[in-house]
Amino acid sequence: MMIRKLFERPDRVRQDLRVRGRLVGRGAAGKTGLLTAVADGVLNEFFPESGFSPGYSDPLISNEERVKREKRLEITRKTGVPQTLERSTVSFELLEGAKPLVAVDLVDEVGQDFTNTKASSDEDSKTRFREVQNDLSRADVAWIITSCPPPEFGPRHQKQLAKDIGNALENLRAAVTRRPPGRPIPVGLVLTKADRIADSAEEARSLMADDMLRQFLAPLVNFCRVADQVADCAIFPTSSFGFGNSVPGKNQADRRGGPENSDAFEGNDPGDLIRDPHSIRPFNLQPLVAWSLMAGLKHQDVLVADDGPTPEAVRIARLLARDIESMDRWIVTVKG
Ligand SMILES: Nc1nc2c(ncn2[C@@H]2O[C@H](COP(=O)(O)OP(=O)(O)O)[C@@H](O)[C@H]2O)c(=O)[nH]1
Ligand SMILES: [Mg+2]
Questions:
Q1: What's the gap in Å between 284 CA and the centre of ligand 1?
Q2: pLDDT tens digits for 46-71?
Q3: 237-266 mean pLDDT
Q4: Which CATH number is correct for 2-335, 3.40.1080.10, 3.40.190.10, 3.30.70.1120, 3.40.50.300?
Q5: Could you tell me what percentage of the chain is helix, strand and coil, using 3-state DSSP and rounding each to the nearest 5?
Q6: Which residues does residue 255 pair with via DSSP β-bridges, in sequence order?
Q7: Closest ligand 1 atom to Cα of 282
Q8: Sheet strands (E) in the chain
């Protein structure tokens, strides 16, 4: 057996395909909302060309996950997206008919671990931070989460945004430098809460031209463009609630890392609540998931046996590429 890059030897591939997605972003960037919306809005939907569907082959697991989702949605309905106190994983499979093709897991991180862990922090915090970094350095795809600022964008938000992007970049850089040589990671730059600045997808698109988005996320874009350790990279504006479906909530000051911490990243960011939980229409998430699976499959190392089975991962990645082409999508390519 040898380890090879999939697309260098498309004739041979291992069977147990997996895509591990890891998220980076400060507290209140929208990570939990995003993963909840992926679980609610993308699972059990069919991709347009391949007919693939992210979901569960085991009804017991499916029921388990559904109950978790419904609980989370109920909390979101009442008091907003629940604060993340511990890492948790959203797992599902990419199915073709009844056949599971790829095991997918996406980890919801505690944002404060990225922003508040310091060299002088206690050992427990530093151990947790190193675990997150280790995991990220071994991931198949990374989502770097930044949120759209509120409509009243001023110098304070500008400063906050620079700080958020700077922190995300430092974390990404530290993780990718520890990747094995020749094993670049695809990076999705996810701009959450697009519904904060526009009432519809059309309006959002008219407000944010491709170059403006690249400019908005310039430090991350520039890094990903030149870093050898980064494979494909693209920007995805998203909304977890959907357009016209949020109302300003109370200040997030009571969330961990709030104003009692003078270096708070999220203390002044009033969160939004969902106006009508029955009309949640997550925006641009199916393209994000399909792209992540495609890029994640394309760039991972695979075990290659000289007389091995047929190139299943290549077939899947190609079909996903066709799916993406025919989806209503907003993908701003940076690299790849
Ligand atoms: N308008 C709007 N607000 C959102 C959206 N997603 C999250 N939020 C708000 O941002 C806050 C933080 O989101 P959360 O997902 O908990 O961030 P995390 O700390 O990165 O997990 C939430 O309490 C919501 O108020 C979205 O799609 N649209
Ligand atoms: Mg969270």
A1: 16
A2: 999 999 999 999 999 999 988 988 88
A3: 63
A4: 3.40.50.300
A5: 40, 20, 35
A6: none
A7: 27
A8: 2-5, 17-24, 53-55, 88-96, 99-108, 141-147, 185-192, 230-237, 246-248, 272-274, 301-304, 332-335
Evaluate if residue 87 carries a pLDDT over 60.
yes
Burial (Cβ within 10 Å: 0-12, 13-18, ≥19) of residue 76: buried
The angle that helices 31-41 and 285-298 make with each other, rounded to 10 degrees, is: 90
- Ligand 1 atom closest to 192 (CA): 27
Write the CA distances from 20 to 80, 90, 279, 299, integer angstroms. 27, 10, 30, 12
Give the residue extent of every domain in the chain: 2-335
Q: Which of 312, 332, 310, 309 is nearest to 320 (CA)?
A: 312
State the Rg of the chain over Cα.
19
**pLDDT at res. 308:** 62
Section 314-336 average pLDDT: 96
Nearest CA to ligand 1 atom 28: 193
Tokens 């085991």 locate to 58
pLDDT at residue 292 tops 70:
yes
